[in-house]
Structure formats: structure tokens, C-alpha cells
Amino acid sequence: MKKKAEDRSKRRPVKKRAYTQKPIVQYVVNANPPKQVVWFNKDESNYSMQPRYSESDLRILMVLDQFNIGGTETHVLTCVRELLRNGVHVVVAGKRGEMCDAFAALGCPVYEINFVTNEHIINEADEQKIISQLKQIINTEGITAVHIHQLPSGTFAAKAADQLCIPRLWTLHMLLPYTIDEFELIKSSAAVVCVSPSIMKQLPVKDMSVQLIPNGIDTVQFNYRSLIQSDLRDELGIPKGAPVIMYAGRLSWEKADICRDIIEACRQLRAESYPDLNLLVTGEGRHSEGIKSLVDVIHKETKGNFIHLLGNTLNMSSYYSICDVFLGTGRAALEALACCRPVVAVGVKGFVGLVNPGNYRSAWETWFGDHHADEAWSVEKLKTDINRVLDMPVQEKMETGWVNRNLIKEQFNFTRTTDMLMNVYANILKNRYASYEVE
């Protein structure tokens, strides 16, 4: 008996079968959605089924038209970085562009899909191919929610998600003249997010459930850095102590018009009061060549090169740090405020003026003039507010910068806005785990 007991003790332990978290049956790429989904206990608590999910269950596909340098793309880049830090699996899809490598550097899967042509027109010729590519990505990456930010990529992504019964949400960065079909796609999303109160107020359907989540700013990345002042000024050929004005925006349509008026305002100020004034312009667009031609004419007339066309750049924080006044709108205005810069808000819809505690609310509600404004901009208004900042005492300018930065840290910090977004994702996932029956 003793020997048998010893033999049993020497037996190799039985290995427990390891179960993976992968589903036994995955979606078929060309699967069709069920005709009808009947939900049970939608209004009542179902205590027999407790929700079982965590951050690791959140697998998000972010969709962009193209990886261009702009406010929407920078917003998505910041979101993706913070979501990855929180353990969320994020996949990004879009047409190749200048920010493609920045997304790839985050370590998340990046898929290049030609949603638009080189002329930035919807790629209707390849619609079925694009939808098939998206469905393969959703299936391969185990996506649990599709996050749409733009059109026309959003149209393709919505169709792919619907065919695989994957919930989708839509962030509205601006209120475009949507077609009826496009707005129906937005309205039928599992969640709709707006980046400013003015977009919410202008939505054609008032009873639509909408979440308000502002752009989040990384206040470590965007901060005033005095140490780079002299080197960057030397690189640009700007004398020490010379006032520097900065404008950032896509050089297309109304924002190109704003740029032209800022150039004219700076030309007049240089002739009247500030002979060593310099202007930095960042951004590109369909009217870039026209702006360049205008600058060449002004430089020839004034016999001085004081306007610096910097094109698209990811190193915005450095340029914010050397400017005395920033003019712009939207996310760029938030970034400049985070860098302690005085900001004159001017956007597509009109003029807000010098941002200060007295108009913080109206600046936020109008998205710094980009989504709404009570008055139009003009060269004279731009000149007046630029002059007002340049004439500020040094101490007042410093205090204005501190107050501006505190606003961003308290109201637009990217960790706070990412938490809000993760709550939206969690609610979508919670609803997806509800009990249903397919007929």
C-alpha cells in the first residue's frame, strides 16, 4: 500500500486545459446582418446576466479621411495615445498622409485605405473594395466599436460596421451641410459626440441624444518653453525683441481669407508702429499658392521678408513659444492658450477677439469663432487686438498667459476628456452585451 501511494505521488500532474479568449466562431467577412434584433429587458434590470467587460474588451477602430495635419487629425492622435495608455486596443484607418508616421509611432495598427482621391473627393469607384477592406480589419482586429470622425470615410465605415453588426459612434467636429442619407447615418449611430456646444445647438434634430466632449490638450506637450526662443528666432532670421505674430490654420476657403486679412493687418502695423514685426503662418491647403504669391508681392513692395510661410508642421509648441500673439481658432487656439500665449480668436464664422476670463464661455461655446460668432472679422479689428496685446505691460501679459494655461489644465485636459470618451465606449459595450434573440 505504501509503495502504491508513493507511485501515485510521482505521477505527472494533469495539465488544465487552457482556454483562449478568442471566440470559437468569428464573423464572416461577407456576412449579412440579421433582419431584426429583438431586445429583452431593455427597461428592466437583468440580474441573471452581469456585464463582464473591462478596458481590454474595448477594441476601437478610428477612421479618418486622410492622415493630414489638422485639428481633427491631431485630436484623434491625442485620443489614440491616451487610450493606448489606458489599455484600450486601438486601430486607425485612413489614406496615407503626413501624419501617418506619427500614428504608427504610437505602436497601434495603422491601415492605409484610399477613402478619398488625391483631389480629396470621395472614392466612389472603389466603394465595395473599401467596405470589404474595413470588414476584414474589423474581423481580424476583433473590433468592438467603430469611431467615425469625418466624411466621406464615415460613410464607408458606417456601412461596414452595420453589415457586421458592430456598433459605431460619430464625433462631429463641425456641422457640414450633410445630405439626408448622411445625417440618417449619423442619427442611427450608437452614440453621437460633439466637440462644442454650438454644434449641439445647430443640430437639425433636437431630440437626438448627444454627448459633449471637448478636444483634449496634452499640457506637457503644449507648454511655454523659453529656452528655444533664441535658437528658433535665429533660424528664422527674426531679431531678438522683434514682435512675432502667429496664425495657424488650413489655407483653404474662409481660413485662407482670414490669413489674407491677417497678412494685411500685419503689413499695416509694420508700416505704422512696429517696423521689425514678423508673422509666422503654419498650415497648407488648396489656396497655399495664392497666399505665397501674395506674400511675394508684399515682400517686393516692402523690401523685407517678414512673413514666414512654415507649411505643415508637427512642432507647433516651439512656434507658439516664440510668438507674442496667436491668431486662430478651434484646437490651435487651445494649444496656444496651453502655451501661455495671448490668443485673438478668429474663425470661419466670425470674430471673438482677445480671449480673456470675461469671454471664456462665449469663446468655448462658439469654438473660438469657428462654429458660430456674433460679428464678422475685419482687418481693422485684427489690428486693434494685435496692437492691444503688443502694448500690454510685461507683467499683465505674463498673468494673462498663466490664467489661460490654467483654463486648459482644468477644462480641456486630455486625461479628463479621454475618461469621458471611455465612458461612452463602455456604455456602447454594455448595451452590446444585452440579451437578444435573432429572428
Shape: globular
Largest sheet: 7 strands, parallel
N- and C-termini, Cα separation: 62 Å
Secondary-structure class: alpha/beta
CATH class of the largest domain: Alpha Beta
Q: Report strand order across the widest sheet.
A: 4-3-2-5-6-7-8
| Number of E-type strands | 15
Compose a concise summary of this entry.
By secondary structure, this protein is an alpha/beta fold. The chain has helices spanning 2-10, 71-85, 100-104, 127-141, 153-163, 180-187, 197-202, 229-236, 253-272, 288-302, 316-322, 330-338, 360-365, 379-390, 394-411, 414-432, and strands at 37-39, 59-66, 89-95, 110-112, 145-148, 168-172, 191-194, 211-212, 244-248, 278-282, 307-311, 325-328, 343-347, 350-354, 436-438.
Outline the structure in words:
The chain is of the alpha/beta class and about 450 residues long. Helix content is about 40%, strand content about 15%. The protein has helices at about 1-10, 70-85, 100-105, 125-140, 155-165, 180-185, 195-200, 230-235, 255-270, 290-300, 315-320, 330-340, 360-365, 380-390, 395-410, 415-430; strands spanning about 35-40, 60-65, 90-95, 110, 145-150, 170, 190-195, 210, 245-250, 280, 305-310, 325-330, 345, 350-355, 435-439. The strands form three sheets. It has a seven-stranded parallel sheet with strand order 4-3-2-5-6-7-8, sandwiched between helices. Strand 7, helix 7 and strand 8 (about 210) form a beta-alpha-beta unit. About 40% of the residues are buried.
